[in-house]
């Protein structure tokens, strides 16, 4: 396919913050954007002209998107595969429906990792009473996760011993699940890969992630964040996973690093990822620029990290640091810190656990970025790290 040059219209299914940052990156390059999203005034709909307000599986909304856009991407993995298929009959859709369908189901995801010979946590599929009875005790203590629709730690139950398993499964549906062995994590990492239709692939530097209550709280990147040899191994594994899917677009691959130094792949997200947001300020090409390039068929250049960075996720909880009435956090104080880059998503109502924005700190060294981020965390009433 010839590249779609600036001036063309790029479509995105989904109107959340990832769609917003995609649209902004596309517009900077001179593209027109069109967003399909059920919620009027959603973060991406605010920044893109004439959004299509329709359900993701509404045939007439999808038809309008296919008519207005010359290529379409998605900003979240739970868009119905049938919607992507309908669009793909008319316009290029990246990532392709097949790859998204694998990322939507932990069973298929794990089967893919196994096929790629990338190490993963020991696990079993639990889809029936018989599966439940057959669980090997070596998987316990473990984490039971719904095969579909889990995110930010939702759809998961810790299971300490066999006696807790049936109740945990019942509490989750009972829906098809995977039971994973609970691993002794040292830390977590992720790698963002971008792959073009011609198979050319680039990646962002490996980032180190801290989760709190199942939600990403903080990401660090830069010299010293992740040991060199580990970084190389994770980058190679991430490319293998993308290549095995014949993936086109931006893919995030999450990893666990264990206390004994081994590592396993955890899961994939078929889109830019919260853990890659630092690239907007610390790299010369961001994960959203890469999404635009892979969608439009433009050349991919290897992103260069020009600053160390710490990203803080800004959850709605920060609006309640002073009490039960929501109050705007002290942004002016935060922006007085050198290297602060504030990104807010245009969500009007703050709620606990809701992703309202993120705050990147860039600096010449990771220690310096961390020091500024710690000051900001104090100003915002965030738990120290
Ligand atoms: N097998 C495991 N062993 C130890 N910790 C785990 C395991 N699986 C998940 N976790 C913890 O729970 C978090 C969320 O799990 P994950 O599978 O990534 O689901 P989600 O789709 O909600 O991101 C992980 O980032 C990690 O901190
Ligand atoms: Mg995860």
Word description of this protein:
- The chain has 385 residues and is α+β, with helices and mostly antiparallel strands.
- The protein has three domains: 9-93, 3-Layer(aba) Sandwich (Rossmann fold), CATH 3.40.50; 122-181, 2-Layer Sandwich (Dna Ligase, domain 1); 185-380, D-amino Acid Aminotransferase, Chain A, domain 1.
- Helix content is 29%, strand content 25%.
- The chain is built from twelve helices and 16 strands.
- Strand 8 and strand 9 form a beta hairpin.
- Helix 1 packs across helix 10 (287-296) and helix 3 (81-88) runs antiparallel to helix 4.
- It is globular and about 60 Å long.
- 45% of the residues are buried.
- The mean pLDDT is 96.
- The chain binds adenosine-5'-diphosphate (ADP) and magnesium ion.
- The site of magnesium ion has 2 residues, from loops.
Key terms:
four-stranded antiparallel sheet, Rossmann fold, D-amino Acid Aminotransferase, Chain A, domain 1, alpha+beta, globular, binds magnesium ion, binds adenosine-5'-diphosphate, Dna Ligase, domain 1, about 30% helix, about 375 residues, 12 helices, 3 domains, nine-stranded antiparallel sheet
């Amino acid at each position: 396919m010839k590249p779609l040059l600036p001036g063309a219209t790029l479509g995105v299914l989904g109107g959340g913050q990832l769609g917003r940052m995609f649209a902004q990156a596309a517009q900077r390059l001179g593209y027109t954007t069109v967003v399909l999203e059920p919620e009027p005034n959603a973060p991406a709909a605010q920044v893109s002209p004439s959004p299509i307000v329709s359900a993701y599986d509404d045939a007439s909304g999808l038809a309008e998107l296919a008519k207005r856009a010359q290529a379409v991407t998605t900003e979240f993995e739970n868009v119905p595969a049938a919607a992507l298929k309908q669009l793909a009959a008319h316009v290029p859709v990246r990532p392709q429906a097949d790859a998204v369908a694998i990322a939507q189901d932990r069973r298929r995801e794990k089967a893919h990792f196994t096929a790629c010979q990338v190490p993963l946590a020991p696990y079993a599929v639990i889809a029936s009473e018989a599966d439940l009875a057959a669980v090997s005790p070596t998987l316990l203590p473990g984490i039971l996760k719904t095969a579909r629709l889990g995110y930010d730690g939702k759809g998961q139950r810790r299971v300490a011993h066999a006696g807790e398993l049936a109740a945990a499964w019942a509490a989750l549906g009972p829906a098809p699940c995977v039971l994973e062995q609970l691993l002794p994590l040292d830390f977590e990492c992720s790698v963002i890969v971008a792959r073009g239709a011609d198979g050319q692939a680039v990646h962002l530097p490996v980032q180190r992630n801290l989760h709190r209550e199942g939600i990403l709280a903080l990401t660090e990147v830069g010299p010293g964040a992740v040991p060199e040899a580990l970084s190389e191994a994770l980058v190679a594994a991430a490319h293998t996973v993308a290549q095995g899917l014949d993936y086109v677009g931006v893919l995030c691959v999450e990893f666990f690093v264990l206390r004994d130094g081994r590592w396993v792949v955890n899961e994939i997200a078929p889109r830019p990822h919260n853990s890659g947001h630092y690239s907007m300020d610390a790299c010369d090409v961001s994960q959203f620029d890469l999404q635009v390039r892979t969608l439009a068929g433009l050349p991919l250049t290897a992103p260069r990290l020009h600053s160390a960075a710490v990203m803080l996720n800004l959850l709605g909880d920060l609006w309640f640091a002073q009490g039960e009435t929501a109050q705007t956090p002290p942004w002016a104080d935060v922006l007085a810190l050198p290297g602060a880059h504030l990104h807010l998503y245009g969500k009007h109502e703050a709620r606990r656990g809701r992703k309202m924005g993120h705050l990147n700190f860039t600096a010449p060294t990771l220690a310096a970025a961390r020091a500024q981020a710690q000051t900001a965390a104090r100003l915002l009433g965030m738990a120290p790290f």
